Amino acid sequence: ACLGSCILAAAGASILPSVQEGCDRFVSFRKKIFLPQKENRKVYEEGYRKYRELYRRLWDLMRERTGL
Length: 68
Fold this sequence. Notes:
InterPro entries: ATPase_NBD. This is Xylulokinase. The chain has 68 residues and is mainly alpha-helical. It folds into two domains: 1-31; 35-68. The protein has three helices and no strands. The chain has helices at 2-12, 19-26, 41-66. The longest helix has 26 residues, at 41-66. The relative contact order is 0.08. The mean pLDDT is 93.
């Protein structure tokens, strides 16, 4: 998101000739696929469990702070 915002701003300020030029110069895609390692399954599951618990505990606080 930050890179896209920078490209849009640079194109708008004529630092770059166009958004397409900015994308061509600064954006790249890798075709490599990263798969989880089976031996780390317990670590992934524990991290996800902690994330879910933290999200659940913070839900009311987030709603309170945003006025929802």
